[in-house]
Write a structure and sequence with these properties.
Distance between the termini: 40 Å
Largest sheet: 2 strands, antiparallel
CATH superfamily of the largest domain: lambda repressor-like DNA-binding domains
CATH class of the largest domain: Mainly Alpha
Structural class: alpha+beta
CATH topology of the largest domain: 434 Repressor (Amino-terminal Domain)
Number of domains: 2
Shape: elongated
Number of strands: 2
Helix content: 40-55%
CATH architecture of the largest domain: Orthogonal Bundle
Strand content: 5-15%
Radius of gyration: 19 Å
């Protein structure tokens, strides 16, 4: 079993771990690369959680959102939307534009806000580094 992990989900700082069985990995790549590819795919979809949030705020079902997207000319199925919301599918730039249009928001609102390290967190990180290196 190989483990892939990401940190942070919906503002929390905990580790998400997925166990990948070697039998389920593609034969064309090493297990380490397959885990890396899975992690990178998750990072390639940063708007999935916000799509779900905006849909919930409007009390729309996935089928209702899919119907609205299709009326705008965006090819979408409920399965595709579910995979986008759970970050199992990469979102194309055209789909991002359609999501912004159907929700009536700017493109920037779809993307998560980047958080900067506060002073206390930076100080704790420096203290841990000093302890590991043996400094006082």
């Amino acid at each position: 079993m190989f483990e892939a992990g990401l940190y942070g989900k919906r503002g929390e700082s905990h580790k998400i771990v997925r166990r990948v069985s070697p039998e389920r990995l593609p034969y064309t790549c090493s297990p380490e690369f397959a885990v890396y590819a899975w992690v990178m795919q998750r990072k390639a979809n940063v708007i999935g959680q916000n799509v779900a949030k905006f849909r919930y705020q409007r009390n729309w079902t996935q089928d209702e959102l899919v119907a609205k997207l299709q009326l705008l000319g965006c090819y979408m199925t409920r399965d595709i939307l579910a995979n986008i919301e759970t970050q199992r599918r990469i979102v194309t730039d055209i789909q991002v534009r359609f999501f912004a249009e159907v929700f009536g928001i700017s493109l920037a609102e779809l993307f998560p806000v980047l958080r900067r390290n506060d002073t206390q967190t930076m100080w704790l990180t420096e203290q841990r580094a000093k302890l590991r290196s043996g400094q006082s």
